[in-house]
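Support request from a user on the community tier.

User writes: "When I paste my structure tokens into the form, the page sometimes reloads and wipes my input. The last time it worked, I copied everything first. Here is what I submitted, just in case something in the input itself triggers the reload:"
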């Protein structure tokens, strides 16, 4: 399955919000060439603090923000900081992830687990 890269998504967002590379760069205190490099896949996604500033400057809604952070984390091979903090603070979440990994749940099994959890919450 093909997925959009961070640079592609970021550029799409930036253009939809009528912001230039220079405006974003100035807002986060970086050089315009860094933003160009990010959009062309030559530079890694920005660190979490810069991502927060970018999300604010672009006035992203919650869904756009979530996708931006998710794609950045994926491209970096990490989890978003807020997820890491939540997992660390909640042993049961860590155990759940470990159980899914250890038992090599497939996508269908994970979806069933999520559906089951969502029904219990209602």
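"...and here is what came back when it finally went through:"
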């Amino acid at each position: 399955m093909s997925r959009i890269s961070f640079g592609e998504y970021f550029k799409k967002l930036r253009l939809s919000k009528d912001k230039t590379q220079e405006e974003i760069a100035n807002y986060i205190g970086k050089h315009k060439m860094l933003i160009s490099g990010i959009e062309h896949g030559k530079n890694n996604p920005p660190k979490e603090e810069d991502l927060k500033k970018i999300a604010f400057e672009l006035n992203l809604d919650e869904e756009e923000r979530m996708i931006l952070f998710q794609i950045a984390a994926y491209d970096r091979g990490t989890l978003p900081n807020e997820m890491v903090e939540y997992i660390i603070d909640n042993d049961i979440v860590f155990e759940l992830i470990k159980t899914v990994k250890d038992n090599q749940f497939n996508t269908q099994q994970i979806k069933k687990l999520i559906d089951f959890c969502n029904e219990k919450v209602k």
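Agent notes: The reload is a front-end session timeout and is unrelated to the input. Residues 62-76 form the longest helix (15 residues). The chain has a mean pLDDT of 91. Escalated to web team.
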